[in-house]
Design a protein that fits this description.
6-stranded mixed sheet; 9 helices; alpha/beta; 14 strands
Length: 257
């Protein structure tokens, strides 16, 4: 199995998993870049996985279905380009002979899901849409801070070796905020240096890993003393319960430049 991101729009990644004959595509907002890549690689499109309804994740679905006859799988509680197989939390769907567990992760949108496979070439694999980014998380367009915190908690319990396939190249901007929150985090500093080098080479910073994210991502570390202290310094009126701290951290990120 081979895994790679196809760049789309300004900073989107459309993830592709293939076995040299058939491909799974995740959140194809742009059909043209996918069709061009499939033709170049001489691959058949087998399955389209969709994590949530935003147009930059679904805009290419209809054209790809029409051109390639691929089956489409997406969340039960989101407006989706029909027809498709709708799936809910805890279900398992097969693609390329691999089992993908559906994990409901509301917060960014109300019915957002992630797809987790426990073993792809020896490593677990997570397609997390816009719920989890490297060093960040999605904005709360439809969900609540409590929902997003719970969703990130669920993802953080996946194995540390899990490859985390986020759908935007937001890493450097997220890291700037993360270092403001935790300026003395040595793992974070090392990751910044590595990501700067990758971007200078025009290479993606992704996939990340769950173990790394738990060391450097402030939204997975909102219960850590250093993060809580930073939030309290930024907003002294913040309550100290977990959800309030997380909400204040997300609100801080929303206005951070």
């Amino acid at each position: 199995m081979q895994l790679l991101p196809i760049p789309a729009f300004t900073d989107n990644y459309i993830w592709v998993l293939h076995d040299a004959q058939r491909a799974v595509v995740v959140d194809p907002g742009d059909s043209e870049v996918v069709l061009a890549w499939l033709a170049q690689q001489k691959l058949q499109l087998d399955t389209i996985l969709i994590t949530h309804h935003h147009a930059d994740h679904t805009g290419g679905v209809a054209a790809l279905r029409l051109a390639k006859g691929a089956r489409v799988i997406g969340p039960t509680l989101e407006p989706m380009p029909e027809p498709l197989q709708r799936v809910d939390d805890g279900e398992v769907v097969m693609a390329l002979g691999l089992p993908f567990q559906v994990i409901k992760v509301p917060g960014h949108t109300a019915g957002h899901v992630a797809f987790f496979c426990p073993d792809v070439g020896g490593s677990p694999l997570l397609f997390c849409g816009d719920t989890l980014f490297s060093a960040g998380c999605g904005r709360l367009f439809e969900g609540t801070p409590a929902q997003m915190l719970n969703s990130l908690d669920r993802l953080s319990h996946l194995p540390d070796t899990t490859q985390v396939c986020c759908t935007h190249e937001y890493t450097l901007s997220n890291l700037k905020f993360a270092q403001t929150v935790e300026p003395h985090n040595a793992e974070l500093a090392a990751y910044v240096a590595r990501c700067l080098q990758l971007r200078e080479q025009n290479s993606p910073t992704l996939p990340s890993s769950m173990g790394l994210e738990k060391q450097i991502n402030p939204f997975l570390r909102s219960r850590e003393a250093a993060v809580r202290q930073a939030v309290a310094s930024h907003d002294p009126l913040t309550s100290t319960d977990d959800v309030s701290v997380f909400a204040a951290l997300r609100a801080w990120k929303n206005v951070f430049r």
